[in-house]
Design goal:
The complex is a heterodimer of chains A (549) and B (309). Chain A is an alpha+beta fold and 549 residues long. Chain A has helices at residues 6-25, 36-42, 64-73, 122-133, 151-155, 186-189, 200-204, 266-274, 288-297, 325-333, 337-345, 373-382, 402-419, 430-438, 457-460, 477-486, 492-509, and strands spanning 44-48, 78-80, 87-89, 92-97, 103-108, 167-171, 174-178, 228-234, 238-243, 257-261, 280-281, 302-315, 350-351, 394-399, 423-428, 444-450, 512-523, 528-529, 545-546. The longest helix of chain B is centred in the middle third of the chain and has 36 residues, at 86-121. In chain B, 41% of the residues are buried. The chains are: A alpha+beta (549), B mainly alpha (309).
Chain lengths: 549, 309
Amino acid sequence: MVFIPSTLSRVSACSAIILLVVLLAGCNKTEPESNNKVISHQQILRVNNGLEPQDLDPHITTGIPEYYIQLSLFEGLVSKNPQTLEPVPAVAESWEISDDQTHYVFHIRKNLHWSNGEAITARDVVYSWKRLLMPKLASEYAYMLEAVVNARAFNKGEISDFTSVGIKALDDNTLEVTLNKPVPYFLQLLDHQSTYIVPQNIIESFGKIDDRGTAWTRPENIVSNGPFRLKEWTPNKVIVVERNPAYWDAAAVKLDEIHYYAVDNKQTEERMYRTGQIDMTLDGQILTDKIEVYQQQQPDHIHLTPFLGTYYYLFNTTRPPFDNVLVRRAFSMAIDRDSITKNVVKGGRKPATAFTAPGITGYTPRANIHFDPVMAKQLLAEAGYPDGKGFPAISILYNTHNTHRNVATTLQQMWKEILNVNVTLINQEWKVYLNSRETGDYDIARAGWLADFADPTSFLDMFESGNGNNHTGWSNPEYDHLITLANQTANQTERFELFQQAEQILIDESPVAPIYYEMSANLVNPRVKGIYPNALTYHPFKSVYLSDD
Amino acid sequence: MLKFILFRILQAIPVLLIVITVTFALVHAAPGGPFDSEKKVSPEILKNLNERYNLNAPVYEEYLDYLSSLLQGDLGPSFKYVNRSVTEMILTGLPSTLELGLYAIMIALMIGISAGLLAAVRPNTWIDYVCMSISMLGICLPSFLMGPLLVVVFGIWLEWLPVSGWGDSRWDWVLPSFTLGFAYAAYIARLTRGGMLEILSQDFIRTARAKGLSEARIVLKHALKGGLLPVVTFLGPAFAGLLSGSFIIETIFQIPGIGRLYVQAAFNRDYTMIMGTTIFFSVLIVVFNLLSDIIAATLNPRISYQAKQ
């Protein structure tokens, strides 16, 4: 028998109480720094940027989280009006374009300064673009300037003399750019992060022009020319930028600081928003089930904006059964896109009936493919599989994500009910999935595409023969011809007509089945003013401010 | 004892070498590479990127180069975070992970030992059942459920504690440390109870009681040392486990630690980061196992004797 001492019980109980006290001592109301009114007074905007940026060097990075920070730190020759997406002057105060649209002269602002006070001239633009095109830098976005004379050859290392590239500083304030073909969207490219200007002195004090990953982007070193400058960078936690007094339009900047948090967990993000730890989300991907809750309870807190992105399925056209256009069309027509957008992906997403997403001024695809179960069955029968008889075993490949799984299981069911075919699902980790897609190891695969700029070429170039992003194996000489012709045409109306014809071929032959157009869903506190919905989810913080009104 | 420690350190070298080799092989065998993305990189750019990170060389050369750099203490540059080295990223995340692990183990020990003692001194009573049921709950409740539950109650409903963050507020350590520590508290409680029950039934305890010592003195002075031996043995791997297994907690509570780095590196195919974090955690596990063995040897004369042999 064990004697049970009252003293010992008290000791143990005491330990438990101490622990409880420690825990309860932590239990006070939220700290004053997250008090909304104080923040509002200080004009400090706290946003969730989703992921830790891989770097802040605009010539190296390709991701959206990096872009949002670079948009605050740097500026290119032109910027965009966030309401209309029209190009507006930035580093260049004006420009002239030749009639054949191959010759641009930019007038750089006078009295333009880096954040360290040094002057910015046209030579800085030449240096920056030369750096972007340096082969050893291996910038993934170097193709943004490929329309410039000899830029591609320089980037591929075929020529080494940069003076033969069509980028020249005529004097401190004049820059001349010569293109080898008209590119009607060229000004849009000059607001892409890859064409932002970077400081030569600083870059070369930490390495050569084409060194990747040097320390020049560290808070203690970086010099930039945007409305904000870098103040703090704690990896995986927060990046703080503060107002840049040397910015040419500093008077228009209202925010004192922006805190970019790197919260990749969507539940945590929503909880942080709910408890006032962040003022807004940026990546447009809040939890689908929360969209409806906010729409019902706090509609003024949610910003739903269609943007230039398409969610689609691709068919492997290099092997049966999807080498047959009838089968591809049958599968595409057996997709009830309305049902998917209303019941599965929700969040205001719209059914996609063509590949190019709506939102490009002057271009709405004429081509369309819609849900037609009767026609779908008929096409499958014509292909030799009446009522799905004899149809081989096929699978849908997708990467691990709830939305992808839900869409895949819905389509599996639709194709079973309408076409009477059995489809299995293959779920793979992101990089494995990319590898399977690239090597053509799939029957049907899910995919998504976001445009880099507002032009049909950003969507349709992908399906040219030999394009590295076309994983369907589909190729059509007429399509290639139309795209090449469109990319050489200066007249926008004629150009868009050529894209219309190309897109009609794409939809008719259906190497891909568009499913829905992407929708950006962000939580934005009503105190945050100056955020405008647009098709590129372009939100420069230059004109954003906080107000309780 | 010194011989014992030296022997264990020597033993660790082949273990680490095997870990490095197997990880290196697995990382390179996994489909997909560090520069794969939704938008394809052009072949020329990819060639230059591979050259930059020495990925064009044959794998065995890459492996030997890596080993040689490692011997010089260089874990290489991160493929993903291009302007940072792996060592820098690990050192940046280490304080948060260590702090979290330390708080969690303290909480685990306080709850675990208290509950285990209570249960052991009153075995087969309602106190014992309650303590052991709670500890079973701690073992069964995964941290990805426990964490959000605590957040909803203390962070959102009661608004007592911050829902995420680390080092921003005086109290943001409480919820993550408690969530991480609770599961370990459950194991410690069960180990303490088992160890104490075994010791309390020994002859020397009966002798102590016969000599008229107070029960508190018997339990705290004579039984506790031996009773906690299983806990001590458990502590080394537990602490290493706390540090390497804090990924979920770091994600839920947005803590900039190494756990997140470790898992994200695998998803990103950040080869050098995967290698670096794996080596770091392997060393950590080896060191903590060694420490717990040394402490156990100090507390248990039988282990000390075997070591002397």
